[in-house]
Amino acid sequence: MSLSSPRVMGILNITPDSFTDGGILFRDGCLDASALCRAADAMVTAGAAILDIGGESTRPGAARVSVQEELDRVLGALEVIHSRFDAVISLDTSSPQVMTAGAAAGAGMINDVRALTRDGALQAAAAAGLPVCLMHMQGQPDTMQRAPSYNDVVTEVAGFLQDRSRACEAAGISPGQIIYDPGFGFGKTPAHNFTLLRQLPDIVALGRPVLAGLSRKSMIASVLPRDTSQRLPASLALAVLALVGGAGILRVHDVAETVDAVAMVAAWADAPL
Length: 273
Ligand code: 7PM
Known about the structure:
TIM Barrel, 10 strands
């Protein structure tokens, strides 16, 4: 997978409580494989290069799931998608057991909102040999939005990502396999999020591909009164700003629309002066 032009990652939530799709893909303890295939097919057809699947909701206040529950949700989905589509499958997990099993079932990258900080996660990711996305989060999902606080949000996020990169490299993950993510909305006020977006070139300058997850996030609601189903135009505006700031991967719900936005920015970036 080349990152010379920006890639779109489509979000497939395999959780019963996902905040945007209400758990249509996983209900009553059971994966709806045909709904999953339709959703994956629509995203791949629309131009997603990566499909992000996760079985543990990172929503603030979400119930923690057991490793077995997460494995049950995610492995079936991975096998279904891996056997039918050639998109890279990103596995959204913090659990070393899920990383190991997921890599064997066809995952092509690991997306960890905890940046491989759980016991054994660095070793599991290194053994899997897959690219890893390291995301910054202040605090834990259940409490992170209570009182986010930074002296200098950009410097602190950049420093955290560099620390985690060093830990990855020490565990045997090659620098070329490491992706950075400032973690929009994860222990950040709207002002922190907009500062990070405005200063995204400073994160890009650290020398790794940068993933931006802005789709439908609540920073939009700090500017406009929109519930999640009405955030597409604002999400596209944020996606364009992230691209102009140098993002290499956009994690989104609305793949087709975002692919069009990527094409416009690419044409703009390639225009002769
Ligand atoms: C509630 C709060 C529901 C937050 C869902 C979310 C990211 C991610 C998520 C991100 C990476 C969402 C988030 N966001 N992984 N997983 N980067 N790498 O809005 O920004 O999808 S969950």
